[in-house]
Amino acid sequence: MAIERGIFFDDSESISPQQREELQDLKLAETVDYAYNHSRSARNLLDFINLKPSAAFNRKNLEQLPITRKTDLIELQKSIPPFGGLLATPLENIERIFISPGPVYEYQPSGVQWFARSFYAAGFRKGDIVVNTFTYHMSPAGLLFHEGLRQCGATVVVMGTGNTDALIQAMLDLKVNGFLGTPTFLMSVIKRAEEMGHTFKETFALKKTWFTGEMLPASLRKTFEETYHLSTSQAYAVTEPGGAIAYECEAKCGMHLDNDYIVEIVDPQTGKQVQPGEVGEIVVTPLQNKSWGLLRFGTGDMSSLMTEPCSCGRTSNRISGIAGRTGDAVKVRGMFIVAKQAAQVMSGFENVSKFQVVVSRNDDRDQMDLRIELKSEPADRVSLAEEIGEKIQKICRLKPDNVQYVDSGTFPPAHKAIEDTRKWE
Ligand SMILES: [Zn+2]
Question: Is residue 271 within 8 Å of residue 337, measured between CB atoms?
Fold first, then answer.
């Protein structure tokens, strides 16, 4: 069965980039004005930096605002209970309240579209029967995904987390053709079904999958697609301002940014926006959801902006996958390098068993050296070192000064992937 994916959920996905920027800036100015006038904490924030809302407010002006992170939200809600002074609408407009660890009380107003574009891009349509394995308990995931699927016309099996055997039975009985969950969970479902004696590819009707909550490794994606003939898609979702901030299309090359958010990629230390291609923290300002006076929510996740056009016809910018968390990032010559991203690059070289990036400082310049343990001897050590250096530069945007081979056993089992030896005095 061919999966219909080459159509958009709405026209906003294919407007010109310039038109999108103008529309978003207009909405941003309105959002900031609304937040200032309806949310005590947004007003405090803007007054604190002496910035007044105006019709000319645009995304560059956001840089002046401090970033609010999850830890700040917990503190805010403690000092101004229960919603931290962020509730910007009468309570009667709030349909549901969710409780995230912290605790952080999150809420959802009526009539918002938070996930439909991402499900539509993944191919979910009328007539599909989709099992939702995210929890419906306390957390926003279950209900919000449920609604997004309905907005695409799909029928949802209310599964939630828990009993794998009951899930397998339901998938068989109802001829479920769509799955929402984490990639690891789907793999465990397939394994369990095989243990029970089923031939997954032949007995199950499953064709379409959508993942969030953890990134989909390339090797697992290949297994799903080639061994089990599943179409795969993933999205990057956050719960605080609520929604699929970015989602994959059929090109599966980065995730398109949703029009309803201003997404900045910033230096987490300074809050300044970085250039496309450079790694920084994902910072989100929701434009559609006026019930939260939340401006510049810092997700703590690192990614980079892709501005090249996409073959699918969607005209929005994309972000590359999640490179890691801000706490794991080290700044070298003005750019961030993240352990997970370097590990991703190195996993593509089969001769390499372990590696370490060593950052030092020489003559007022940051030096980045890459140390490598080999598991097998390459045909040519010099060309392998060159190839690794080029790949690191391409993906991490930083060229190692040296790629050195070290003796096998140099690194202990749990060594740091990035060792920062610089001393700042
Ligand atoms: Zn695309």
Answer: no
253 CA distance to ligand 1 middle (Å): 7
> Does some domain include residue 3?
no
CA of 236 to the centre of ligand 1 (A): 15
| Residue 347 lies inside a defined structural domain of this protein | yes
Place of tokens 């599964």: 159
If we measure between CA atoms, which residue out of 148, 167, 235, 149 comes closest to residue 206?
Answer: 167
Spatial distance between the Cα atoms of 351 and 377, rounded to a whole number of angstroms: 7
Percentage of the chain exceeding pLDDT 70? 98
Q: Which amino acid is at 115?
A: F
What pLDDT score was predicted for residue 1?
46
CA of 336 to the centre of ligand 1 (A): 26
pLDDT, tens digit (0-9, with 9 covering 90-100), for 157-191? 999 988 899 999 999 999 999 999 999 999 999 99
The alpha carbon of 310 and the centre of ligand 1 are apart by a number of angstroms equal to 5
- 366 and 400, same domain (yes or no): yes
The pLDDT of residue 3 is 60
Domain membership of residue 118 (yes or no) is no
CATH classification at residue 394: 3.30.300.30
Q: How far is the CA of 306 from the centre of ligand 1 (A)?
A: 11
pLDDT tens digits along 31-67: 999 999 999 999 999 999 999 999 999 999 999 999 9
This prediction has a pTM of: 0.87
Its domain, for residue 184, covers 124-232
CA of 48 to the centre of ligand 1 (A): 40
Written as six digits, the tokens of 409 are 């056993």
The two three-digit tokens of residue 19, written as one number: 């038109």
* Ligand 1 centroid to residue 338 C-alpha, Å: 25
Domain CATH number, residue 314: 3.40.50.12780
Task: Tell me how far apart the alpha carbons of residues 53 and 45 are, in angstroms, rounded to a whole number.
Answer: 12
